[in-house]
Amino acid sequence: MDDSSSSLVWIIIVMLIGYFALTTWLGKKGVAHSGTMKGFAIAKGKVKPWVVGVSFGASYASANLFLGVPGWAYTYGISTLWYTLGCFGVSWFGLLLFTRKFWRYGQKNGGSLTLPQWLGDRYKSKTLQVLVALLVLFNIYYIVGQNVGLATMFETIIGIPYMWGIAIGVGITILYVSLGGAFAQITSDGIQGISMSIVAILLFASLLWTIGGGWNVLGTLHTDLNAINPDLVSATSNGGPFYSGFAILSIQWLLFSFVLLPHLLSKVLTVEKEEDLRTFTLSAGVSLFTLSAFSVFAGLAARVIKPGLSSADSAIPAYIMEAFPTIIIAIMVIGIISAILSTTDSLYLGITNSIGNDLFKVLAVPLLYKNKNLSAEQLDRKVLKASKLSLVFIGLLSLYMSFNRPESLALLTNFGTSAIISGIVAPISLGYFWKHARKTGAIASVVFGSGCYILLTSFEVFENLFQAMFLSSMVGFVSMITGSLLAELAVKRAKVTQQAT
């Protein structure tokens, strides 16, 4: 190892220690707000709305946008921009469409803490709440994707073995989330979102000296990619996720529905006042733009200046090693690690909240404490304890599942999210806009929408996960509409029969 590499490693290690110290301090500060399940789950009104918005963007970005999607760009070229453009435009439109009504519904019945509870309250169905909570467990695949991304960064830049990189990421995230709950998670994500935005802008600006061409830098990049392979500058890719118009449409549907994922939409419930939703959505939109629009170009540039990488997901780490001086590399590495951890902590919190609030409270408490007449405070403490214990279990499970490195980070992270979206997009959206929406239809949508996705992917009916998700979502909508109309018809017939007798 030469002197520059050695100094880089030590600078990154020192900065990581400082970063972990900061997140642990935030975790301890959040202890004051996480003594109840409500405080632990959403920290309602404890964080400024613009910080919540930046946190939303940071949680959205993840290792996928900073490692997985640039890896796609490295492999498939500019067709990957369909994904990047959708992340800002389509996803932000979805957020604007859903936020206000979701917030209003969430204030009823004492306030919802999780998306499964929100759906259970909306349709007055504990069965639906439990089913969606079970569906949320699919986010374990998303966590595994973040673990892999973090370990890839440690391995590529610092030389830390893959296994140790995973263990470090899991350990520190569990520590500060278990201490400070939503307050620590949202506040740390807000800080991480700002640092990630700076990194994304620097990645784009670096094209001026890595690719060259001045104001025509994108034209020069296009020419260089075309010289390597004309397929790299095609609007559709030869293979991969972007090979047809239908495949691209399916991806846009995913990105529109992505904001409905439990770890993202629950941030809306953190906002205390309805008038603060404007600030939240504006800051979320700005952060979505900066975090999604720039890093992909570094993946394209990496194909030009660092051809022949053994792993496409290492395109960004390899690129920054080539493009920046030592101190800037260290700062950018911390920024990308922030991108990974900012999603991981949201996912951990979302899963464990659902385990405690929607599974333990609904299923286990009535059996375990059937004759004990627990007070509301006693019940809350037990649910909170169950949530924190499940955090450790989910962390260890994700650690085990991360040991085998996947072929594509982006595909892994999208597998679990697509299973969830297939089941919940119809109950949420039709629950807003369709007066005939009923719990029977919502339950049918969750079962048949997600069930269809699992079958299509398990039997490899579609190699493209996004197409499977799109078709499964449509099955969810059909099931929702059919089930709701049949339930409504059954009620009408029962009334007629009752009147006749």
Task: Lay out the secondary structure.
Elements: H1 3-30, H2 37-41, H3 49-76, H4 81-106, H5 115-123, H6 126-136, H7 140-158, H8 162-205, H9 207-210, H10 217-228, H11 245-257, H12 262-265, H13 277-293, H14 295-305, H15 315-323, H16 326-368, H17 376-401, H18 409-433, H19 439-458, H20 465-500
Give a nutshell description of this structure.
The protein is mainly α.
Descriptive notes:
There is one protein chain. The chain is mainly α. The protein has a single domain (3-408), classed as Sodium/glucose cotransporter, CATH 1.20.1730. The protein is built from 20 helices and no strands. It has helices at residues 3-30, 37-41, 49-76, 81-106, 115-123, 126-136, 140-158, 162-205, 207-210, 217-228, 245-257, 262-265, 277-293, 295-305, 315-323, 326-368, 376-401, 409-433, 439-458, 465-500. The model has no long low-confidence stretch (mean pLDDT 86).
Task: Give structural attributes.
single chain, 20 helices, 501 residues, mainly alpha, Sodium/glucose cotransporter
What Rg do the Cα atoms give? Answer: 23 Å
Sequence of secondary-structure elements: HHHHHHHHHHHHHHHHHHHH
Number of helices: 20
Any idea what the shape is? Answer: globular
What is the CATH class name?
Answer: Mainly Alpha
Major beta-sheet overview:
none
The amount of beta strand, in percent, is under 5%
Which stretches are low in confidence, meaning pLDDT under 50 for 5 or more residues running? none
CATH fold field value = Sodium/glucose cotransporter
Terminal CA distance reads 90 Å
Write the CATH homologous superfamily.
Sodium/glucose cotransporter
Mean pLDDT: 86
Number of domains: 1
| Helix percentage range | over 70%
Protein name: Sodium:solute symporter family protein
GO cellular component, one term: plasma membrane
Keywords: Cell membrane, Ion transport, Membrane, Sodium, Sodium transport, Symport, Transmembrane, Transmembrane helix, Transport
Family: Belongs to the sodium:solute symporter (SSF) (TC 2.A.21) family.
